[in-house]
Amino acid sequence: MTAYAIAHVRSVELGPGILEYLARIDATLEPFGGRFLVHAPKERRAVEGEWDGDAIVIEFPGMAEATAWWDSPAYREILPLRTQHMAADIVLVPGVPAGYRAAEALDGLR
């Protein structure tokens, strides 16, 4: 089942560090089947509440791959380039199976 790395980016300090991070991140994703689905789009529409910042969504084949990427030496090497120049909240979450319906969540709530 797919998994996702989701980031709500609150601020970015553009400069050499973040540019190097962007140049190197794709190579860290490839061994784990990761690919960007959303990457700080210029067009966005807040339909409820406020949305300050940007959104990033990276898809992985599963939670094992997402976690392995996050913990990988290659990603850990470039992580300071991001954390020193970006404020963000990041979560790794599993997706739902094909055909999932929201009503299925009721089973766990009863």
From TrEMBL:
<feature type="domain" description="DUF1330">
    <location>
        <begin position="2"/>
        <end position="96"/>
    </location>
</feature>
<dbReference type="InterPro" id="IPR011008">
    <property type="entry name" value="Dimeric_a/b-barrel"/>
</dbReference>
<dbReference type="Pfam" id="PF07045">
    <property type="entry name" value="DUF1330"/>
</dbReference>
<dbReference type="InterPro" id="IPR010753">
    <property type="entry name" value="DUF1330"/>
</dbReference>
<protein>
    <submittedName>
        <fullName>Uncharacterized protein (DUF1330 family)</fullName>
    </submittedName>
</protein>
